[in-house]
Amino acid sequence: MFPSVSLAQEIGLAVLLVAALVWVIGLGHMLWDSRFHHPEPGAYEGLAAIPGQRGAAGHPMESVQLTEEEERAFAGLVRSLPQN
Q1: Is 50 left (phi over 0), alpha (psi -120 to 50) or beta?
Q2: Do 32 and 23 contact (CB within 8 A), yes or no?
Q3: Buried-most residue among 11, 51, 68, 83 (CB within 10 A)?
Q4: How many CB atoms lie within 10 A of CB 13?
Q5: In 3-state terms, what secondary structure has residue 76?
């Protein structure tokens, strides 16, 4: 093809051009589908809602007993947080 370019460089250029063409076609296909395909309302397959939290009387493994010093340190930490 080009007299100053080796065969390996020509093959690399051809592979690069094919990869770029496939990428452009894939991007166009993806944009085309997203433009005209709108999912049905309620067709979402995820969680309907975030599950509710358990109350303070939850499982005993979900609570930690703090010493008075730890409670004071935690209260100081909470007071130091910004109130936004």
Answers
A1: beta
A2: no
A3: 11
A4: 13
A5: helix
User: Encoding tokens for residue 58?
Assistant: 């939850």
Contact 29, 37 (CB under 8 A): no
Is the per-residue pLDDT at 27 higher than 60?
yes
Write the CB contacts of 66 (distance below 8 Å, at least 6 apart in sequence): 74
CA 78, CA 50: separation in Å to the nearest integer? 26
| Whole-number Å distance between alpha carbons of 17 and 39 | 34
At 33-84, the pLDDT tens digits run: 777 666 666 655 666 676 666 666 666 667 788 999 999 999 999 899 887 6
Q: Higher model confidence: residue 1 or residue 8?
A: 8
